[in-house]
Amino acid sequence: MTQVPKMTSRERLFAAVTMQTLPDQVPCVPLLMTRGIREGGITVDQALRDGEASAHAKIKALKKFGGDVIIPGTDLFTPVECVEGCELDYLPYAQPSLVKHPTPTKEAFYRYKEKYLREGFKPSERVLQIQRARTMIARRKDTHAMPTPVGGPITRAQLMTGSSEFLSYISDDPDYAKEVTELALDIVKNVCRMMFEAGIDVCNILDPFNSSDILPPDTYREFGLPYQKRLFAYIKEIGGIGFTHTCTFTQPIWRDIANNGCFNFNGDMYPGMDHAKRAIGGQISLMGTLSPFSTFMHGWTTDVANKVKKLAAEVGYNGGLIVMPGCDIDWTIPDENLKAMIETCASIKYPMDVAALGDLSNVYLAGHPKHPGKRAPSTAGDTDVAEAKTHHKELTPQQEVNEKLVEAIMEYDGDKAIEWVKKGLERGMTAQDIVFDGLSLGMKVVGDMYERNERFVTDMLKAAKTMDKAMPILTPLLEQAGGDGGPTGTVVVGLVRGNTQDIGKNLVCLMLKANGFKVIDLGKNVKPEQFIESAEKENAVAIGMSVMTNSSTVYVEKVKELLDKAGKGDKYLLMCGGAAANKGVADKMGVKYGLDANAAVSLVKDHLQAAA
Known about the structure:
Layout: H1 9-18, H2 34-37, H3 44-49, H4 51-65, H5 78-81, E1 87-89, E2 97-100, H6 106-119, H7 125-136, E3 147-151, H8 153-161, H9 163-172, H10 174-197, E4 202-206, H11 217-223, H12 225-237, E5 241-245, H13 254-258, E6 264-266, H14 273-280, E7 285-290, H15 292-297, H16 301-314, E8 321-325, H17 335-347, H18 382-388, H19 397-411, H20 414-426, H21 431-451, H22 457-482, E9 490-495, H23 503-514, E10 518-521, H24 528-538, E11 542-546, H25 553-565, E12 573-577, H26 583-589, E13 592-593, H27 597-611
Parallel strand pairs: 3-4, 4-5, 5-6, 6-7, 7-8, 9-10, 9-11, 11-12, 12-13
Antiparallel strand pairs: 1-2
Helix pairs in contact: 4-7, 8-9, 8-10, 9-10, 9-22, 10-12, 16-17, 19-20, 19-21, 19-22, 20-22, 21-22, 22-23, 23-27, 24-25
């Protein structure tokens, strides 16, 4: 076979993106955003405030590792940072963390909207610094493509109000949710315009809130997709190129993404990039999808190389593939693993000799149905719902109450929940029985279905609201039975410093509340001292810490260290979960690991039972 003539990195990337011709080799985007800054000898917080220093760091990273792009910018927060009232915590070794939503109430939103319509868009200082960084690396544009991350419209909207609040608006006040997204879209357009005016080639629109792990596909099609289409039409109109990034489980909306007007889709692509290739790979180029954690953080160079080869064989055999981590990589990712990805990509030439890549049948990619880290979506659906409703030929009065309460939770029927709580009390049931054998069982069923991708975060919130409607009847009775802290105690929960994705943490809070625990939700970007202060103040039985990046595990260790130093190392159950956590990491830190929200509940229950 005659090999494709050698190309520059820039030519290679756009050959793969447009799919009009084969690239000379498999293109590689090593995603050196925060990780790229490390090579400049400065921290991320310094780089975010100094475009020139950031540019020098990115140039050094390019020289050290290679790859086909150089990326000004580090994260998706630039549009929301342009909203007055937004507050970010700039961290030394990770992306910034949002600590204050700029429009958490309708009153705050309308005040800002009125001012925005009167005074127009005003860029943040950091947007200006990204422009400055682009100017510093302009000479690289002859040989390398220059993309930059920009948060997408609905992702911006929920960062303006708060994620749980925005999900509630989608359900209870959809017109207002669309009004917030409309303004968010205009802000995103302005940020993209400034990036293209500065000479950026591509705006990669990071829109993780559209994931089917969060929004049901029909909800995405109403509240996310129309705004994406308008954004990509605008980007095309001003002569730019747009990519789409959406994380985790996206299979139900692949065809929508392929038709939203972008040139490339990138992300984790659960349940497998090979599946995405078969579904939409003829329409749009694909970029990804090596796990930042199981592959880059915890794998060996041979693991990285084999997974790159597998992607090439299954996804890139006829072009249209750019290899990239599925999401931003941690500050601590080993040099050798980055080099293994880049060098392996460079070694695979076009036309591709797939057979020469070797036997890859036992190489598993994170997120694939064969991979133990993620279940394949069940097709059982309504069958499981029916089976979850306990059927008996002759129900006892208590069994009937519990069955109807499970149905109420699964049907999101608050009035029905209230009706059957009252009937349960009339029939002599205790408040504890009603909570744990009825309402909580319904929440567990919905939670289990969520874990199987059969229901969504919006469904979890609606189920929790249903339970909340009935709880005012039961709470006084529970407090009488169990004291001021309730029957089972208090749990302090929070997302540690350097982390921004709080959907998982919110689910843990929901499930703990559903099981009768009092929950103190400290929110995002929580310092070690705050966990301990809150636990002491509330006389908590457990502290739950959500960790989404490896560099943030140090804050979990710090909580344990501070408690040990104070002689209180055994006073609380310490548990952690999240994308960067696993049992090995937790054991090393001396804390318990919870795989999901249900596991967190079990850990606290087991702890209390052992202490009894």
